[in-house]
């Protein structure tokens, strides 16, 4: 199996090393794992692509490249330059430092990388490690993802639920709970949740030179979502698996809107 991996935390992020280990186990001794990751951190860029400017790409090692772009850029660079048309069997994005559950999904460059792979017709998964007080005490805060990642990826692959005939193909969002590997209860399928009464905001700050800047500030991450949704079950110790696609149409509203506009 040929696997392409990327992330949004950057080429030197520890979560990418964790993902490489997961990918190596999935690919097997005869397989290939190719890395194309951002040269610098790209957290929060979503599905951004560098459409209006070129990007540099550098070979760092065997099958290891850094690109000055977003995770989606890296997937495109991997498919059309690094692999030179030799399409991978699977694209994995992550392992993100921090959860990409609930509304975080919409901002995530990790999700953006997996989404671009799906738009290119390639099976893809995004993997993220929820952080919290328990993971902060661990020697390896990614140990839940490292230990349980291969089994979850294999389970999704064996399900063979990719809908290759669909215009907007499925991809999968996996979030590992903020606990030690031994405390993980298992994995559950869960819809995307929503953290109420919290979210991103902008906070002003005056620099030493007297100039006014704004910092984007995230909301509390341990606010539970509705029961049974992604962040809620993560906080209960479960790995969440959420099927997604890039179609943003509110299909449930179409009939009512057609009637209202008739």
Automatic annotation (TrEMBL):
Coarse class of the protein's main subcellular location: cytoplasm
GO molecular function: 5'-nucleotidase activity; metal ion binding; nucleotide binding
Short name of any one Pfam family annotated for the protein: SurE
UniProt keyword annotation of Ribosomal protein present: no
Domain of life: Bacteria
Cofactor, how bound (note): Binds 1 divalent metal cation per subunit.
EC number: 3.1.3.5
UniProt cross-references to SUPFAM superfamilies, sorted A to Z: SurE-like
InterPro entries (UniProt xref): SurE, SurE-like_Pase/nucleotidase, SurE-like_sf
Record keywords: Cytoplasm, Hydrolase, Metal-binding, Nucleotide-binding
Keyword Phosphoprotein (UniProt): no
Survival protein SurE-like phosphatase/nucleotidase domain boundaries: 3-196
UniProt-annotated location(s): Cytoplasm
Entry cofactors: a divalent metal cation
Coiled-coil regions, chain positions: none
Binding annotation for a divalent metal cation: 8-9, 43, 96
Catalytic reaction equation(s): a ribonucleoside 5'-phosphate + H2O = a ribonucleoside + phosphate
HAMAP family (UniProt xref): SurE (MF_00060)
PANTHER family (alphabetical): 5'-NUCLEOTIDASE SURE, PHOSPHATASE, PUTATIVE (AFU_ORTHOLOGUE AFUA_4G01070)-RELATED
Role noted for this protein: Nucleotidase that shows phosphatase activity on nucleoside 5'-monophosphates.
Family named by the database record: Belongs to the SurE nucleotidase family.
Protein name, per record: 5'-nucleotidase SurE
Organism field: Gemmobacter aquaticus
